[in-house]
Write a structure and sequence with these properties.
- The chain has helices spanning 15-28, 32-63, 72-87.
- The chain has one domain.
- The termini are far apart.
- It is an all-alpha fold and 88 residues long.
């Protein structure tokens, strides 16, 4: 079974950031490198979510008012449902 390749990546940190990372690692009894790796993974996941959101928003803006917009039967059913809820 092959293991995934590991690559080292050198990131110069300002003294204050380096100190904060080392102190946080010490408090959590974890290696600073592990915490830095987790921070990068979390940031990348957030960036991917933002990109997906932007792509969906772009599609929605492009499709607005077109035949790809809202299904007319679904829209009518939802308006009917809302009207029933208000009356009942």
């Amino acid at each position: 079974m092959k293991t995934a390749a590991i690559h080292n990546f050198h990131i110069p940190l300002p003294e204050q950031l380096y100190t904060r990372l080392r102190e946080a690692a010490k408090r959590q009894h974890r290696p600073a490198t592990q915490m830095a790796k987790q921070a990068v993974e979390d940031w990348l996941e957030e960036q991917e979510k933002l990109l997906l959101h932007e792509e969906i928003a772009s599609y929605a803006a492009h499709a607005a008012g077109s035949v790809e917009d809202l299904d007319t039967q679904l829209e009518a059913a939802s308006l009917e449902h809302l009207d029933d809820m208000e009356q009942g």
